[in-house]
Records
---
Amino acid sequence: MEKAILIRFSEIFLKGKNRGYFERFLFQNIKTALVNFDAEVCKIPGRYEVKNFREEDETKIIERLKQIPGIFSFSPATKIETDFEKISEVSVSMMRELAGTFKVETNRADKHTLNLNSMQISAEIGGRILSTNSNLKVDIKNPKHILHIDIRENKETYLYAKTIFGVGGMPVGTSGSGLLLLSGGIDSPVAGYMMAKRGVKLSCVHFHSYPYTSNMARDKVEKLAKIISSYTGDLTVYMISMTELQEQINAHCDDSYTITLLRRGMFTVAEKLCKKFGKKMIITGESLGQVASQTIESMIVVSEVVKNTPILRPLVAFDKYETIELAKKIGTFETSIEPFEDCCTVFLPDSPVVRPNVYDTRREQEKLDFDAIIDRAMETIEIVEIKAD
Ligand code: ATP
Ligand code: MG
């Protein structure tokens, strides 16, 4: 008797001729995610299988599989020799603790080893389960539990009764790579997760205003990146100082344009980083109308500085509470609400412009030696490598 975990793909099966491409990414991502366990990952037609792991690692492996985009669902299974009495014995013990309705579903790739057909096997094993557990009742149409008996070639049979749903989506890497603007807030880690789920390999940029912002704020961002990395694999965070830009804006520009100009600075740097490191898209946690800097007018004026890179805003139509729900689910919420300043909150104006227009914004920006300041900001880059556990 041996433990195994059967993994089913997500949308990959929709991809026709490209299927091999998606499967290779997923296979590699699963192997990488389980590298710290002594486990073997193999490909079998239509799915993957994790096997030869230590039984005490099973729960941790299951937790890890729940975080890998591209996995639709998986089932912890027991693998035994194809022998009717053994199948019956293990089936009965697997179903002993359960209550409610159930059915048995048998699938035979090997039609020779047992002299019963699939229907007969299901009926006979179902009967034995019923006779040992009075809390169960058969329901063929809509059962609460399904015991699967999967009789394979090589005299191997897999038994499983539990299906655990994964993240879904597409394997990380299949949609190219993107640059996530990662603040220390609630929204941007969720935005990163959502794009990773669509197959984007992430790197992050964080803008700080050291010494106005503390090292604690930076640690918090690294902690968030670490949590995100459990979905994406290893990732890089580029730390960029916005201190000079903020000081200059503060000294020379109209107060109400502080945030608009700072955000134009961030997006200009972001596009330069995309060019430098070969990223195809900019990703942010903006949501339409959430705050003054996220009205459509603000988005237009800020996006103007990005010339050749798409800006993806996966949370654009989310309400804050929807984002919070997701942040809790993916495990970033508790860290996001730790109270450290980020660069948007230092030099905060009393009343930011809610509907900036392009001409006034350009006029304010012309009071600065903007390009030179941005070039110097690029030189402050520090590269932090975050390793996924
Ligand atoms: P978040 O919770 O993600 O901080 P928010 O609701 O506080 O979002 P803003 O502060 O306006 O909204 O930021 C909007 C988006 O701009 C963020 O989701 C993030 O993608 C990006 N951003 C803001 N501040 C920073 C920063 N210091 N470093 C990197 N990106 C940032
Ligand atoms: Mg913020």
---
Amino acid sequence: MTQINLKRGYLEKNKKPFVIAGPCAGETEEQLLETTIALAKTGKVDMLRAGIWKPRTRPGTFEGVGAEGLKWMTRARKETGLPVTVEVANTNHIEHALKAEIDVLWIGAKTTVNPFSMQEIADALKGTNAKVMVKNPINPSLALWLGAIERLENVGVNVLGVIHRGFSDFGNKKYRNNPTWQIPIDLMLERPDLAIINDPSHICGNRHSLASVAQKSMDLNFDGIMIEVHRDPDNAWSDAMQQITPATFNEIISSLVIRNVMGYEHKASQDLEESRKKIDNIDEELIRILGQRMDIVREIGKYKKANNTSVFQKSRWEEIVGERIKMGESLDLSPGFIQKVLKAIHDESINIQEIILNK
Ligand code: PEP
Ligand code: MN
């Protein structure tokens, strides 16, 4: 099997992302080969992708060519010398993909979301030496994403990395799938050992914002990028709006700016050190003040218990929010931010008083 050196820290080490590219779907052998050979010629691809089984949101659209397409993938590998990856969603797909010696399997967002499917997949992969990448679930749940990874790891599967492709969101016009960057960041903190790849194609759902989302992932120190490329994007059989030509792909990847990673091992400049110390002090102060505030909340809680008064006072809450938002604005703090912070503090205050009232 082809050697694949994707690991957490790839970007930092190689000063370039690990790039996975190819069409949304393998449509015909000719389409797949023409696209992947053009991609290989750019010299900017580390692995080729194509969907062979396509989980489509609504029936009646192109659902993939099925197992036959696996032969096309291995042919693309032979022509380009690049490893190949396909999506698998059930034991039947896995059987075929492993038999065809596909280098890497990926689990799609609509599969990661389902623990039954994930367990079935894990059981089918047990004892094989398959390498797997796990896309985030369609809903914004870090727990489900981690759960899917753990089900695979529990049976000894080699989880090569994870793919961030954004989350379904009602009424969001800007993105097809909201990136909600905090979730992949939390995943990086929780699992600093896993390589993480950004999929700007499924986040954007269009061509024009691909470059900025890809750049943002580089700024956040993602290890790689998975992007959909088609020889004739406008006439693609699936996800036509977001696919790009090999030439556009080349431009986008070439114009990515790779920043230096500021690990603690690097000597940060003196100024930066100073600013960080200031931030540390301010955070300490903030936490101390929050502690003081909660002490007062407890006193009020005792008063409310003694007088049998309800915890939540709507008029008081509205007054607090209104005043603090005004104050925040005078300090260049957005109303949304102040509201979020106050809500977190208020929720905690209510919890504390609830405990006191019901003691
Ligand atoms: C895909 O990569 O083509 C795909 C189906 O993506 P997702 O699972 O992210 O929807
Ligand atoms: Mn797609």
